[in-house]
Amino acid sequence: MKFFIVCPRGLEIPLAEELKEISERSEVKALGAWVIDPPPLNNTGGLGVAGPMSVALAINLHSRIASRCLLQMTHVAYRKEDDIYKAARSLSWEDWITPDQTMRVDLTAHRSPLTSLNFVTLRIKDAVCDRLREVKGARPNIDTELPDVRVQAHLTATHATVYLDTSGQSLFKRGWRDDKGAAPLKENLAAGILALTGWKPEQPLFDPMCGSGTFLIEAAYRGLGIPSGSIRAGLMNPQQDAAQSAQDHNQAVKSADKSEPSKFTRYRPTRVDLVGADQGFGFQRLKPFNTPDLKKQWDGLCIVAKKNIEQGLANANKLKMAACDINENMITIVKNNWKRAGLPAQSGVLSNVRQIDALVAKSPFAEPGVMLFNPPYGERLEIKGGRDGSERVKGRGARDALPKNNNSPEFMEFLNQFGKHLKDNFQGWQVDVLTADMGLPGQVRMKESKRTPLFNGPLECRLFRFDMKRPDASSSAS
Ligand SMILES: C[S@@+](CC[C@H](N)C(=O)[O-])C[C@H]1O[C@@H](n2cnc3c(N)ncnc32)[C@H](O)[C@@H]1O
Asked: Is the pLDDT of residue 208 over 70?
């Protein structure tokens, strides 16, 4: 079988390394060998893998960086819409889906000569429906929000590829986030960035502008060896907090973001059975994955994952992690996200999560480690908060909210001061900053040792690395 593993653009190299690691896990290797395409030279947003069906099971359960795992159904040359219709119509969809399931079709294209991509999308939908009506006497309905089955197609200038999505909802949706904070990073982007920093679980990790805590929770999962898909696989329960905690949480969400909190998606499956569209993974709603052989394979992967989770949680007190945010509401949100992720509240990490201005925050660890954060982009976010939800920030290091404009003198001054704070207080640390602001090194008055181009959705960013000088050694930070 051929698969295309989608990831945020710029993360193809860490994805390739991660896929290799997954393929070499003994329980995965036992199910068959994988061939992984080399990372492409330009950012294609994914990688090809050839291997058995178990590739989909293992990637959905273990990949922290992938957004989706797509199973290739056909790859054909085309000149007009009808060529694509015929190719899609000839596929045995009845072996994969049933007419009583709902579906949606998505299409991406690069240099396709066809003028209406909407029309091509409709033709692919027609092809699947016509085939099923012919063979089964009925056709699936369309559901664009929560379909049981997602068909995905990609057009190049000459070729069309049709896939079945084995992930369902995008894999960045781990199942622990009940709310979004102000401008959260997607979990898989955060995990990929963490991989790019080279952070090792035994090192301290500090996020001084943590927002909803995405870096912290992704790092904890990775550090403890907890599979990223654990909640969706039904192996960990998103902790249902006590009533009081839930109330605090709702209050924090309301104050932090005036828009409606997003609907919490429940993930409850424990086995491969035809699960609902808001649960588990897409493959669990595809017929071939419900055969005894593949169910057994999935159960086998889950048994090992469950052991990994138990071992990981037993080691949670070894994590050396800390985070802060100037917005007190974010601290409540991080703590609730942490618990909902099934991570132990008493691990010690949560006492290192504090409301404080990054300009005065010091490391709670004696030894240097990795600092990782994405500062606010002024145009998307302003500092809100304080116990009363006012614009003026209360608590330690209180000061006025930053202006919306990233180029404002106040924002420049903030970065300038933060650069100085790092040089004075974080000697020996590796500091990684994700930002869309290409001029950030100049603003913090430091020379980066590395810059990695990345995309946060459509927004082009850089991950800048600064190696802070040790008191007794020279380095590139000036
Ligand atoms: C882009 S968000 C970080 C998002 C985060 N990585 C996540 O995934 O949720 C930037 C965060 O920086 C915080 N922030 C802004 N200025 C700060 C300061 N001076 N000290 C600490 N936190 C600050 C904001 O409150 C906001 O939560």
From this structure: yes
The preferred substitution site among 185, 325, 393, 432 for testing ligand 1, maximizing ligand atoms within 8 Å of CB, is 325
Measured in Å, residue 456 CA sits from the centre of ligand 1 at 16
Instruction: Look up residue 356 and give its two tokens.
Output: 């404080």
What tens digit of pLDDT does each residue of 212-247 get? Answer: 999 999 999 999 999 999 999 999 976 654 344 445
pLDDT of res. 410: 82
CA distances from 121 to 61, 77, 113, 164, 273 (A): 29, 17, 15, 14, 29
| pLDDT tens digit sequence for 307-345 | 999 999 999 999 999 999 999 999 999 999 999 999 998
- For residues 334 and 322, is the Cβ–Cβ distance under 8 A? no
CB of 406 closer than 6 A to ligand 1?
no
The pLDDT, as a whole number, for residue 477 is 54
Q: Is the pTM of this model over 0.70?
A: yes
163 vs 66: CA distance, rounded Å: 16
Is the minimum distance from the CB of 129 to ligand 1 under 6 angstroms?
no
Q: Which atom of ligand 1 is nearest to the CA of 375?
A: 10
Q: What is the pLDDT of residues 433-466, one digit of tens each?
A: 999 999 999 999 999 999 999 999 889 999 999 9
- How far, in Å, is the centroid of ligand 1 from the Cα of 450? 23
Yes or no: say if 53 and 296 are a contact pair by the CB < 8 Å rule: no
Residue 386, ligand 1, Cβ within 6 A: no
Distance CA 195, CA 212 (A): 19
